[in-house]
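Hi V.,

You were right to ask for the full record rather than a summary. Here it is.
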Amino acid sequence: MIQVLDLLTTEDLCTMFDKSPLTIIAWRENKNLPHVIIDGDKRGAVRFTLPEVVAWAEEYGKPIVSMPERATSVNSENMAKFKEFLRPLRKTLKADVA
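Predicted structure:
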């Protein structure tokens, strides 16, 4: 089962791209940076998956400066399970936006 520890935070992305939290938020809102909102969290915590962030960075030409420690612990088996878990959530999110 995927745990929240397998997900990256905004702070982790700040480290990856050497950018401020406001820049990460702007990318999320204006440049479609893939993210997940954790359901049930009072603050609506936002998290990111490493493969999606890396693919997005390549597409938008955003250089990755360094990798946070948390990112090195995510393995492909966990990521595959997580993507399967996310699939129905993404459909729901897209329907809510439309």
